[in-house]
Amino acid sequence: MKRMKRHTAKLLKILTTRRVSFILLIVLLILVLAAMQKFLICLLLIITGGLSVLYKRFISIGLGIDLMTFNTVIAAMKYGAWTGVIVGIATVLFGYIISNKVAKSPQGMIINVVMFILIAIAAATQPITSIVATGIIISIAYAIIYFPISMVTGGNLQKLLIFFPTHIAWNVFLFLHFGPLI
Predict the structure, then answer these.
(1) pLDDT band for position 17 (50/70/90)?
(2) I need a surface site. Which of 35, 100, 134, 151 has the fewest CB within 10 A?
């Protein structure tokens, strides 16, 4: 009988220790996943933003249909300027690599990196709290600022006249339809 009590007490101790350990493990996993959520969302924004320009590898038309501006504004407004800057730079670099434009336009890539740094900072520090309004204003401002820079640095006028209207229209569509969901 003593032996059985001893074994029962030992078993209860093991079960209690394991239960507490299991609960602590679950709590720890929840905390780690919560911390990783920001990282995973930003990684998803970078990947989708970069992949959204893959078509430019095969089509030479200068369409402005991509997720780069949209994703950068979302990251900056949701997680702050530094996160937005990182997402913007990584998205531009990934986009240029995947669309095979690094060698064709290294100065365009550098200019875009600088522009996306400015986009992220503007999105994170502006006084408007609406992602929709901020995104639309930033998309228009990007076109107004980048067009003359592109022309001065040897941009193709025909491609630019296609790119900027489609870029603005596409981003207005994205921010109007998907911005409120964020």
Answers:
(1) low
(2) 35
Mean pLDDT of 163-179: 94
Give the per-residue SS3 of 51-107.
HCCHHHHCCCCCCCCCCHHHHHHHHHHHHCHHHHHHHHHHHHHHHHHHCCCCCCCHH
Grade residue 12 by pLDDT with cuts at 50, 70 and 90. Answer: low
User: Any idea where the domains of the chain sit in the sequence?
Assistant: 41-181
Distances (CA, A) of 71 to 57, 74, 119, 167, 171: 20, 5, 11, 14, 10
Greater confidence (28 vs 90) lies with 90
Q: What architecture is the 41-181 domain classified under in CATH?
A: Orthogonal Bundle (1.10)
